[in-house]
Design the sequence.
């Protein structure tokens, strides 16, 4: 698991790095940590499995950095905000940017360790090994916008590409059932709820402009639970 820590205060970066490194050694977690004091430097790098991102920085604030990362990687980043500011959670919840959680500064080590445990396990769920004929392809679940049934195969649609896998859509649904990121909206479609732009009683429109038929009567409640789930 690759973790990025970004805070424009060097002492905070070093402190968090040491906490994560010591805990990883204690738990025998395979974690590699890289530290940044600049959001611009961070967004110039390849994707990390998890970002600990300071909410308020001088050059680029946490929301600006997160939006840049989402644009670069198709919205498929896992991030936890670090903040002294009580209104940070409200801004995140109000839709300025998606976040997987936040920690108040100074960081409580026990709360940090809970996050590490959660995200470490999630990082392995987040990788799917899907069959393509006689070979297998590993993808990040979060990269998938939606999945379409094509007979005995399934087509996964990404930000700028699509791939066919030798799985029936019901089999893919089972692989995704350990998380709450995906929803079967129709017998032929599974969507990633991160990418929902809007919906009505008959259709769901995704952020890439694709509109899909909606036949799942409980989708409204499922989506609300996803959007307003407790940030742990």
Sequence:
């Amino acid at each position: 698991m690759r973790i990025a820590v970004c805070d424009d205060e060097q002492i905070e970066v070093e402190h968090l790095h040491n906490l994560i490194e010591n805990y990883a050694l204690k738990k025998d977690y395979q974690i590699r940590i890289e530290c940044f004091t600049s959001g611009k430097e961070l967004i110039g790098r390849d994707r990390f499995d998890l970002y600990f991102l300071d909410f308020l920085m001088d050059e680029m604030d946490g929301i600006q950095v997160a939006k840049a990362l989402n644009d670069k990687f198709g919205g498929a980043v896992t991030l936890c905000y670090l903040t002294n500011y009580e209104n940070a959670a409200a801004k995140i919840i109000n839709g300025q940017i998606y976040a997987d959680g936040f920690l108040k500064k100074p960081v409580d080590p026990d709360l940090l360790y809970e996050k590490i445990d959660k995200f470490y396990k999630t990082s392995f769920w987040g990788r799917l090994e899907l069959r393509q004929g006689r070979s297998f392809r590993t993808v990040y679940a979060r990269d998938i916008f939606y999945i379409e049934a094509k007979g005995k195969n399934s087509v996964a649609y990404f930000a700028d590409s699509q791939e066919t896998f030798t799985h029936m859509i019901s089999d893919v649904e089972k692989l995704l059932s350990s998380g709450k990121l995906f929803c079967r909206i129709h017998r032929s479609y599974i969507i990633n709820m991160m990418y929902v732009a809007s919906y009505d009683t008959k259709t769901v429109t995704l952020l890439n402009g694709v509109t899909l038929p909606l036949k799942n009567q409980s989708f409204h409640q499922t989506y609300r639970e996803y959007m307003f789930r407790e940030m742990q």
